[in-house]
Amino acid sequence: MFSCVSHCQSRLKGTHFPSHIAVALFLQDVDDAALARIDLERKVESLQEEINFLKKVHDEELRELQQQLQQQQVHIEMDLAKPDLTSALREIRIQYESMASNNMQETEEWYKSKFADLTDAAARNVEALRLAKQEANEYRRQLQTITCDLESLKGSNESLERQLRELEDRYALETASYQDTVIRLEEDTQSLKQEMAHHLQEYQDLLNVKLALDIEIATYRKLLEGEESR
């Protein structure tokens, strides 16, 4: 995630570029860091949307589960509003005793079946509640995991922004240093040009003096040769 910043730092250390190339490299690294930041912000936004979606789904499922539990509670209350269990058992007992002489075994099986139905209904309610709690815990765990990931990405984003600011500050300092160096080199170059022009002028003056002396010497030599020939 910090490859662009690390790469920029590695290129800044131990490498000497001309000023225009260094500026171009800095600009490229800043662009890469900005793109990485945008990509990170998109991931953070995507995770936030996923969290909102999971919260919405979780709330809807909890609401449906509460409605189901309320309906089951209403059914249970309606069943309890009917003749109580003692009365039901008394009626069952009366029916059982009335049919005992005819079919004792059939009546006993019917009683056991009714009791088993009540037991199964109670077990289903307990299982439904257990599954609901388990599902709620799973959603809570997923939410915690996504929240941790979001916090981690936020921390990474803050770190990247901090490094980007440091990179921009360093770029500004390096650019100012490069500009100062360029100005100093231009001044040195101008000074060297002036010094060379001065030396060339001195050389030309000396050359003119030498030429004049050579002419004068040649003239004297001819005069001497003329005197000797007489």
UniProtKB/TrEMBL annotation:
Keywords carried by this UniProt record = Coiled coil, Intermediate filament
Does Nucleotide-binding appear among the keywords? no
Q: Kindly give the Pfam families that the UniProt entry links to this protein.
A: Filament
Task: List the Gene3D superfamilies.
Answer: 1.20.5.170, Single helix bin (1.20.5.500), Vasodilator-stimulated phosphoprotein (1.20.5.1160)
One GO molecular function term?
A: structural constituent of cytoskeleton
Give the record's GO CC terms: cell projection; cytoplasm; intermediate filament
Q: Could you tell me what this protein is called?
A: Glial fibrillary acidic protein
Q: Which organism is it from?
A: Varanus komodoensis (Komodo dragon)
Q: What is the lineage of its organism?
A: Eukaryota, Metazoa, Chordata, Craniata, Vertebrata
